[in-house]
Amino acid sequence: MATASLSQIVAHCEHRLAPSTFTDYDRAWNGLQAENSGRVTRIAAAVDASLATVELAIAAKADLLLVHHGLFWGQTLPWTGRRHALMRRLFEGDLAVYSQHLPLDGHPEIGNAAQLATALGFKRLKPFFASKGAFIGVQTVLARPLAREALAARLTEVLGAPVKVLPGGPEVCRRIGICTGGAGSELPQAAREGVDTFITGEGPHWTFALAEDVGINAFYGGHYATETSGVKALAAELAKKFKLPWVFIDHPSGL
Questions:
Q1: Is the pTM of this model over 0.85?
Q2: How far is CA 78 from the centre of its chain?
Q3: Domains and CATH numbers, the chain
């Protein structure tokens, strides 16, 4: 059975994703969130770290869980009830947890936005959607513009999930920006950066009128659905480099 050093894997991730170049949300913790005994034989990847995904990773015989949304989002004390069960299972399963939030959104190759753009067949990607001093999305100008309905159908097929369309912009989409997750409330910023169509995960009700006000199409593909590809790409890269098997833990929120 092939094994790799947890510290070497973490070092590769830190170098590849450069989290020090991002200012993330105050409550987000990027990096190694839980150690194991120091060796990795199988990698699991999931969007969210939770008791459910930890159990699924252990059942898959993984000893490293890569996630986009980590264990720590603000105060997590006390460690009782299900939080205690989560800690206990991490130790019992000898499972390490490694998380990257904005650095995995914005990476130009293995990031969520770049991977989604590639899956949609977009080329000539450029940085897009500046946040806290770094770009966390990508944009492209289509050589062959797409009708709004055709783009919605393509996005639905790629994500395997229903897409909500806010038709505030032109019927034909030419300049498209992608920022995965919950960026729907930031439609004015997307419009200021010059795109006519904005793909993200979700947004509140009032953004329907906002899309019309700023003259932009918004496609909401689901927070979860738009953020599966980054952890998959990172896991695949690590598996190839360190000659380890990997598995994706699918635990959709439906949101």
A1: yes
A2: 28
A3: 4-101+228-247 (3.40.1390.30), 105-223 (3.40.1390.30)
